[in-house]
Write a structure and sequence with these properties.
alpha+beta, Histidine triad nucleotide-binding protein 3, 152 residues, Histidine_triad_HIT, HIT-like_sf, HIT-like, globular, hydrolase, 5 helices
Length: 152
């Protein structure tokens, strides 16, 4: 959350959910991440996994954040399996700004039949608006290499 958001009293809904100050039921929580069902599910199972500490989006991340991303991804796989879904046939990914609706990093964990063709497209890996963990790691690594090259 930015200083301007705090000054203008624009609270982050995902921060409130993660810290338990809303009536949202968490399906998982530890010191680093929290998971809850999407309010407008795109499929049979649609869970959001967020960092407990506010991270704005995939655009603000660095390679230092890869362990957090991997933890979020692994928890998504675990939650899919618990619900009887094959992770290989499911979708785990992040919307890329400006195509995200909440400015708090969140991993979409989507399993089962999609509710519409539009939703299927909205959560399709490889589109400019949606990336999976592998794509995000490659983007972060490229960003790191560019930063290192600029220092030389």
């Amino acid at each position: 959350m930015t200083i301007i958001d705090r000054i203008l009293c624009r609270p982050c809904i995902f921060c409130a959910i993660a810290d338990g100050s809303t009536p949202t039921t968490l399906v998982y929580k530890d010191d680093e991440i929290a998971a809850f069902n999407d309010i407008n599910p795109a499929a049979e199972t649609h869970i959001l996994i967020v960092p407990v500490n506010h991270v704005k989006s995939v655009k603000t991340m660095t390679t230092d954040d890869i362990p957090l991303l991997e933890k979020m991804h692994q928890k998504g796989i675990d939650l899919l399996k618990e619900r009887g879904h094959d992770p290989e046939q499911s979708r785990l990914g992040f919307h890329v700004p400006p195509f995200n609706t909440v400015d708090h990093l969140h991993l979409h964990v989507v399993g089962g039949a999609m509710k519409s063709n539009f939703r299927k497209l909205k959560y399709e890996t490889g589109r400019m608006w949606y990336m999976d963990l592998t794509q995000l790691q490659a983007t972060l690594d490229k960003k790191r290499r560019l930063q290192e090259g600029a220092r030389l």
